[in-house]
Amino acid sequence: xxxxxxxxxxxxxxxxxxxxxxxxxxxxxxxxxxxxxxxxxxxxxxxxxxxxxxxxxxxxxxxxxxxxxxxxxxxxxxxxxxxxxxxxxxxxxxxxxxxxxxxxxxxxxxxxxxxxxxxxxxxxxxxxxxxxxxxxxxxxxxxxxxxxxxxxxxxxxxxxxxxxxxxxxxxxxxxxxxxxxxxxxxxxxxxxxxxxxxxxxxxxxxxxxxxxxxxxxxxxxxxxxxxxxxxxxxxxxxxxxxxxxxxxxxxxxxxxxxxxxxxxxxxxxxxxxxxxxxxxxxxxxxxxxxxxxxxxxxxxxxxxxxxxxxxxxxxxxxxxxxxxxxx
Length: 327
Prior knowledge:
About 60% of the residues lie in helices and about 15% in strands.
């Protein structure tokens, strides 16, 4: 739908923007001695508003004639013809109202039409880029869920299968936990941002399932500043880091260990770290893809760094604070 007509409050703002053009038209009519000052002032505003509504139609011509390398010349030629025609119609209206030589009005109308064309193409380009970003985000989330779930589901289902004959009650509890985790994953993945508190709930659901498999070998500790809980982040941003800590850290340590998640707000930045023990001699293959996904989803304003201290591996995220509601 037309971006100006789609919202009622935009139309008055759009028409108000034509008042300076009415002043310009008044000065043009006076400077070219087409009309007396009083008559020029009287006619300029209705003429400007008339052309304002004509220029609203530019949106539809831009939609019908999209810019593309294959048809650029044809599109520019058609828009120039439309601009000359619209300018001529405006000049004709001015002539009917008493402007003897409306050539200046024609030139001004052509210029305004072309400016409207440029503005609407920018608007359409922005909409297209926004849709492409949304599609890319959705595809990235689907890829991320596909990366997380198969490996995790395989291990979880094997654990459930083993528990059905040993401890049916625990197997049932694990089934319920797995269902809750998948529900939360799908729910968060459909949104563009989530609060850190919600991401933390997903992480705790994930850790609860993995504890069934690793028992006392897996310990988890979260140290979250209260103000950090309300900060919004991309969904499924931290869960892959915790999964990475389990798969490439705890799983290779015979004694297991503690995964520590910290988050705090400092100078309008959210600082997050995930620390886990790891076996230096164990192969860490496969961690790169998940880490790259997280790094890409941070955007230009966020950073991710890693460091190794002794037998501890730490991932640190630094991203801007957004404490508004979910999108």
